[in-house]
Task: inverse folding
């Protein structure tokens, strides 16, 4: 998946292009001068309207709690607190250790 980080001004200038890119699967991250960022994500209305509330929250909503969890994960990775699996065998050994 292509990840593209753009400014709010760039989004304003080329909104249609960025929306079409998101429709095709690109992840668009829009950053404001305040350094606050937003993710542009297409929402499949049929799935949204038919889904249970929990499903919608887990799959379509980026909540402050989710952002906190992601920040925690980034920090742990930066501190070297992760298991790297480079091969299929490494993955199996890791899963067996759980």
Result:
């Amino acid at each position: 998946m292509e990840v593209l980080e753009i400014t709010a001004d760039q989004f304003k200038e080329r909104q249609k292009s960025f929306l079409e890119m998101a429709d095709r699967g690109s992840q668009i991250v829009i950053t404001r001068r305040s350094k606050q960022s937003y993710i542009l994500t297409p929402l499949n209305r049929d799935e949204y309207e038919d889904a249970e509330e929990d499903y919608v929250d887990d799959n379509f909503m980026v909540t402050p709690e989710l952002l906190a969890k992601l920040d925690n994960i980034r920090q742990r990775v930066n501190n070297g607190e992760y298991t790297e699996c480079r091969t299929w065998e490494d993955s199996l050994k890791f899963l067996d250790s759980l």
